[in-house]
Amino acid sequence: MVTEPAEADPACRRGLLRAAGLSLAGSAGLLLAACGGSHSSSSQASTTTTSGPVPDSLDAALLNHLLDLEHMGVAAYTAGIPLLSPAGRKDGQLFLTQELSHAGELGGLVKQAGGKPHKGRETYNLGHPRTEDDVLNLLHRIERAQINAYLDAIPKVSLGSTRAALAAVLANDAQHISVLRLSLGRRPIPTALVTGHE
Amino acid sequence: MTGSSQVQLSRRDLMAGAATGAGLLTIGAAALAAESAEAAAPQTDAGLIRAIVSVEVLVVYCYQQVLSSGKLTPATEHVIRQLLGHEHTHVDVLSAVLEELGQEPPDPPTSVEDADAELSVLHGSARLASLSSEEDCLRLLEQVEQLVQGAYYVSMSKLADVKLARTCASILGVEAQHYSALAGLLHPGDINKAVPSAFVEGSA
After folding, report:
1. pLDDT digits (tens, 9 = 90+) for A132-189
2. Cα–Cα distances in angstroms (integers) from residue B146 to residues A83, B56, B125, in the given order
3. How close does chain B come to A34, measured CA to CA in Å?
4. How close B128 gets to chain A, by Cα (Å)?
5. Hey, is the C-beta of A89 within 8 angstroms of any chain B C-beta?
6. Is B138 inside any structural domain?
7. Is residue B108 part of a domain?
8. Which of A89, A125, B94, B109 has the highest CB neighbour count under 10 A?
């Protein structure tokens, strides 16, 4: 009997990644300064040799694109949280922790697909948010871009288990954007299907 | 065995499959197979979507029962009506898919007793028959949202049609938002209750 590589003990891996996300969150303030280096090229991605179904060679590139967006989300939350109200900061800290978990999950998936996970950039062009609304709008745009990217990637990745993992992250980002929309005075759940355009 | 009990058996089998993925879906399909040759292949997209729609129509039934319970404040009722509208859309979208795949959508539960029995099959502990407050109503809906999330999540890795997987991911996202809205009503200001996990996998 063959199994998909991504099916190998996912609970154990997820638990480790979650723990990593929590510990990373504690040092989130250091993250922007600490994350250096340039992106690895997607051409470095290669498939692993296994006895079961293997990820397509394009998977690593797709997953690294999603990882890039998660890194940007981490940077935006890290930079934006100080400008939020106390209630907003509490939300932001939780979402930052969850974005870090997403990045950890995606890094693991990139490796499973035979690629090298991208690191975050040293700097991001996040504009010049000055008010809480500026920050919330920035975070809304980034969460929306992430949702769009996940919806684009889900039909393209080769393994069903990877699709499920991406959907689990997408749904959490959908919760983030719903809370952000509510904070911005918009309808929190404007559509019956998440499209990434709302 | 009457015709209606045959339908009921099928619904429960389908939902058992939705609750626990491939293993029990096989059991459900085996039961169906005795009555319907078209159900002989449980891991088909049609079988997976039919299992999801079985849960979705139960969700719709639960929302309708909560709305008619008289336990909700006007503000909460307003929110619940919006969420119910989304659930109707999910049923419509996936029922259309089922019809394209040559299958009839499953019937909804016909009574509170049947719906509670189906919740039990799905390992849900809340019961429509014991709703005595708004809090009870919201907790039940939270639970059914987690159940339907689980049905979508389990199916994500099994659907052969990747565009269909994308549609299910879109719906899973909204079900997750529903959960947050319900938790927000139950626990105002507690973001950890509203968005409890970085990975939304439901309770299947």
Report:
1. 999 999 999 999 999 999 999 999 999 999 999 999 999 999 999 999 999 999 999 9
2. 34, 12, 12
3. 23
4. 24
5. no
6. yes
7. yes
8. B109
Please check whether residue A81 is in contact with residue A130, taking contact to mean a CB–CB distance below 8 angstroms: no
Counted domains in chain B: 1
Q: How much is the ipTM here?
A: 0.84
Question: How far are the Cα atoms of A51, A79, B126, B127 from residue A1, in angstroms, in the given order?
Answer: 9, 48, 39, 41
Condensed to tens digits (0 to 9), the pLDDT of residues B99-153 reads 999 999 999 999 999 999 999 998 888 999 999 999 999 999 999 999 999 999 9
Amino acid at B70: G
Query: Does residue B172 lie in a domain region?
Result: yes
Query: Between the CA atoms of B24, A12, B182 and B141, what dihedral angle is there, to the nearest 10 degrees?
Result: 20
Q: Provide the residue ranges of all domains of chain A, joining segments of one domain with +.
A: 66-116+128-188
A19 in contact with chain B, both atoms CB, cutoff 8 A: no
Please report the sign of the dihedral spanned by the C-alpha atoms of residue B148, residue B151, residue B155, residue B157: positive
Under an 8 A CB cutoff, do B177 and A178 touch? yes
B89 touches chain A (CB under 8 A): yes
pLDDT of residue B123: 86
Q: Which domain holds residue B187?
A: 44-194
The letter for the amino acid at B43 is Q
Identity of the residue numbered A170:
L
Residue of A nearest to B192 (CA): A94
Q: Which homologous superfamily does the CATH classification assign to the domain defined by A66-116+128-188?
A: Ferritin, core subunit, four-helix bundle (1.20.1260.10)
The CATH number covering residue B104 comes to 1.20.1260.10
